[in-house]
């Protein structure tokens, strides 16, 4: 039975969600019952909570259909420039609540479900996450889809429909254990398979140079089956498409050539082809040169480009000349954005289609390709850069290898031999490799980093030579997140109190949050914000106590650090901070401390030894501190199991010290010092107190031992790790962690220890109810820049050459219901 809803919850809903119309409520109830009966074939005596979730999902989905069809029809008729966002990852999370929010029907559904004697929140929790991503890169793609639909762009997301998304993380005895993410087990109510649009993708084979041109022959074919998912804009009647490809073996797979006579074996072998879309590679910022991954990358590129070209040819523009499609206009009608180098094969594949298939001259084809493609760089970490062995290419994609060689020869116009070697797409050495980032930079008209400082590093280090040759190519597009999911949906209470002050327009124009600066001293507003925060923390505390059997002090500072576990992401620095706080509490019993609940969460790549050790370290520290009666509830350390999009939504409402959804760090860049956790939104705006350190300084010839010997509290923490203080059952447990920190720490954790401790000390000083809330309000007011709507508007104007339109598609014109 549904719990009675509190008055404050109703108030929030009224202020942001609109008032439920009675007729609409009855319609949702009817539709729910109809789907329970006809779609799920159940009555209320035998229906499970999951049946109720599916019945509601179908009832909500029905409201997308007319808008979806009409939006696509509108694009066909008007033929605007299409934006194609190509990504190996779309970290979408759940869809039900997001759809209700964007269609403005959450309140109506809440009321209908309540009248049916059910609880909407409970049903929402049943939905599986679409975990088709690892972290920031995949979530960015998902936020961008929301913003592109909200801004009325004719945009498409293209990717792979992995049968298994990012693994589920279990913690056993403090260690991470992976479980397969069988997210499609109960079916996916949001996707529509389109077997009629299946396309062939070729692999292997050989190249023949004939008088009529180049032929790629004797290939093996795998079919790409599209599955479409609707992407609704926020209350604008626009519904775009995310098209994900699934691998299907052709029906004659292995029947003619190989297993003649062994029919059973041939059918079983279909798995080989279909393995291409089986599972997401679980690496974040790490390149693993597996052939199956290269197959995935070509699979999505080959299927997507066929689809793009089919749509171009069927449009008014492409087919104006009925005899020969005019491909010179292709870049005026098509933009392809490459989410990192993962879909980099788009460049040689487009060249192959234009030159080998469409018989275009090489130079013309190259101009078209360059004007069409743009590349987003996400990292400068060397181990993350894709460098494929030439031998693997030669076998799997022989024609593409030839094309890449030609691109390298013809379009790398460099005289200086040393520079030429540095800039080559082909890296010489024991194992010749293709540098995919170099291919992307050469084959794109725009290259962007994802934060101001990152884009500077891109120009001054990894792509320095390229920047000097073509400076006009290089841009910055600071990342953002969608305010629909990350504010309206996950923190309706906060959205409600904001709306009371500045109206609802901030939902699609987040820069309006700066109006809140007028209310920093408004006592009523301060109290309202503090109240929402306290309610969220209480709810989250109850969840934590239930889940982790740890007593939580809900008025303690919530110090949340959630992201993929990686040596560069500073979890070890956080551990050293926690250990130091613990040692101070034990050393000075009479001193008062600001109580903290530290929560750390994130997945480690299954093959990343040190990341898995970091998880064991966090859980081990927690075991000692949480069970020390001396400490009580002044310090708790909890590892948040299975951090994912739906969990981030939970955590975002409750965070105290913020490290959630910050603007990105310069991955692998300089050591980050003097970052104020209390002022996240100002990270870009605030000049660093210490500039990038000159090479004469202590930092450049980093010597961990100097810090260890000079800073007693740091030494004590490290000695405790060495002696097994936090791992009494296995004293040697953390020797590899200590050895790394002391002898080969690429990320120079000790160099940041002191500044980090001091900064956290200032945070403690600030943590007084009223002052803290005022800081929170200031931070909210200056966070408006980090909307993905702003990011996408910049991509649209500065890379794609299109203008976003805030105007909604007229409902009368567009929607048949
Ligand atoms: C936003 C998000 C990320 C990226 O977080 P960073 O702190 O930028 O690394 C990773 N995982 C999930 C589930 C997210 O929602």
Automatic annotation (TrEMBL):
Entry cofactors: pyridoxal 5'-phosphate
One Pfam assignment: Phosphorylase
One Gene Ontology term of the molecular function aspect: pyridoxal phosphate binding
Catalyzed reactions per annotation: [(1->4)-alpha-D-glucosyl](n) + phosphate = [(1->4)-alpha-D-glucosyl](n-1) + alpha-D-glucose 1-phosphate
Record key words, sorted: Allosteric enzyme, Carbohydrate metabolism, Glycogen metabolism, Glycosyltransferase, Phosphoprotein, Pyridoxal phosphate, Transferase
Entry keyword annotation includes Cell cycle: no
GO biological process: glycogen catabolic process
Residue numbers spanned by region Disordered: 659-690
Gene Ontology CC terms, in alphabetical order: cytoplasm
EC number of this enzyme: 2.4.1.1
Subunit annotation: Homodimer. Dimers associate into a tetramer to form the enzymatically active phosphorylase A.
Protein family according to the UniProt entry: Belongs to the glycogen phosphorylase family.
Function: Allosteric enzyme that catalyzes the rate-limiting step in glycogen catabolism, the phosphorolytic cleavage of glycogen to produce glucose-1-phosphate, and plays a central role in maintaining cellular and organismal glucose homeostasis.
Protein name: Alpha-1,4 glucan phosphorylase
Organism encoding this protein: Chrysemys picta bellii
Organism lineage string: Eukaryota, Metazoa, Chordata, Craniata, Vertebrata
Gene name for this UniProt entry: PYGB
